Amino acid sequence: MRGLGQGVRRKAAGLALSLSLSLITLCTGRAGLASPRNDKAKIPGVTWDESHPGCTFSRTDDGKYHYGMWYEDVGVTLAVDSQEVEKVHRRHEPFFAVLLDVRYRGPGLLDVTTDNISLEFVKHFQVVQMSLDPDVFSQKVQNDSDELDHETAHEVEKHPEKKETKEAFLRAFLKDSAELQEFVGKNSLRPTRLGPGNPETSGWVLFSTDSKWIGGWKKQEEFILRVPLEGKVFEFPFKLPPKPGEVMLRKRQ
Question: Is there a contact between 120 and 224 (Cβ–Cβ < 8 Å)?
Fold first, then answer.
């Protein structure tokens, strides 16, 4: 019985420690942890909350929601299209995109990397997807275009009567792919070093939605974006739309 009691106490102590380690820092800067679920080592983090100092939320006429957060010398702004969930279905390559802006006002240097940025799909078994490498993703888009080109030529050879339809689809596919590759090449967030002479960087970050656990989008989706910076994780919980049933009007370009 004594051994059993000790075992129960050890489990209780372990549970208490586990709960304490799961605390998340808010914008007030209190100690906590925030990191992707598949990370073995937890690192300190700060979490966006509109009710806390340093955190902001706004909507713009281009149809984007903006979540901003300053913590010490680092400011991060997440922008996401209000129709991003709907756009995922219309893309040949399924991905979810967010726009990030990172600013640094410290006297030293801040390295901005992109390989550890993650997006958690909360309502889809809390699946965590790491950011796509822009160059690798662009090459995949090119490979898919080449494969479709080859398949179309083969199909047209076997079924000449389908030539017009097949080639029209191919042209549209190649056009979309070329535009996507150009966008990714020019606008993706790239690793950089910020400092007094270069205080800001921005760019798009893409996440694959090609997973058996992601699908059947809900009327309101929930996400958590995590951006590791300067030994901490900047964590942005957000919903699309932010309020159930909300429709955001945008000005025509």
Answer: yes
CB 225 within 8 A of CB 35: no
**CB < 8 Å & 24+ apart, contacts of 219-223:** 219/244, 219/245, 220/244, 221/85, 221/121, 221/122, 221/123, 222/122, 222/123, 223/119, 223/120, 223/121, 223/122
Nearest to 188 by CA among 118, 60, 98, 75: 98
Sheet containing 64-71: give its strands across.
Answer: 55-59, 64-71, 74-81, 95-104, 200-208
- Quick one: pLDDT band at residue 45, thresholds 50, 70, 90? confident
CATH classification of the domain holding 223? 2.60.40
Q: Which residues of 146-163 are buried (b: 16+ CB within 10 A; e: fewer)?
A: eebeeebeebbeeeeeee
Query: pLDDT by residue (tens digit) across 73-122?
Result: 999 999 999 999 999 988 888 899 999 999 999 999 999 999 999 999 99
Which DSSP category does 243 fall into? Answer: S
Is residue 156 in some structural domain?
no
| Total domains, the chain | 1
143 located within any domain:
no
H-state helical runs in 42-133: 84-88
Asked if residue 97 belongs to a domain, the reply is: yes
